[in-house]
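I have a small job for you when you get a moment. Can you supply me with one protein entry, sequence and fold together? It will help me judge whether the discrete encoding reads sensibly. Write everything out right here, beneath this request:
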Amino acid sequence: MHGLVHDAIAKTEADETLITRGDFHVRLADSEGQRSKSNMLVNAMYSWRGYTAQIEPPQLDQMTLQACRGDSTFGTMTIGFDSPAGLAADTLYKTVVDEYRSRNRCVCELTRLAIDGELRSKDVLGALFHLAYIFGALMRGVTDVFIEVNPRHVVFYKRMLNFRQIGHTKLCPRVNAPAVLLHLEVAYVADQIARYGGHRGDGQRSLYPYFFSKKEQDGLARRLSGLAAPPVAVAEPA
């Protein structure tokens, strides 16, 4: 396919890999040690940009993806699903997000995206964002995605993924830096995947050609089904 290495799919009890693409693979951070690697990467990347990064304890209803070469983690992204505890974005933008909740939309957020600058590529970003789409939209019925970003990154998210700004600039206490809230409708993502997914190098100035093809997506969804199931609340002992 366009001279590129086919995306391999593997998930067994002994193999945590979700996908292998070129010279990297993406896995779920489902252990304390793996989550620690994401925290260290986020801290390193945020500190380099002058942000304050806090190590956040894992929430009940979130998933963290990691892009790795060997056992080295160079990229991470967390998907936060809505719950009675809300989203991190509610701290600054609850009234905005509540407008979608009031229309019975299913919302989620993407947080703590960090990639080592030397290893950043459209293939890595495409894999992370497409896996977030699979886990969120296809497995959990998410209809709307939010992300808080520094104002200087707004142009990238608008141009590459078609996010739209829906929140005014505010100071985010988690990183002690300005932030704006962006929104993306999942139906648009589905359309772009159907049109451009897997067609790298076709001239489109977006990330969607670096997503998987629709056929690859459907195969991934079948193989990964069940991994994004809502958490089960454990009753406290009487």
In short: The longest strand covers residues 72-81. DSSP finds six helices and ten strands in the chain. The chain has one domain: 8-224.
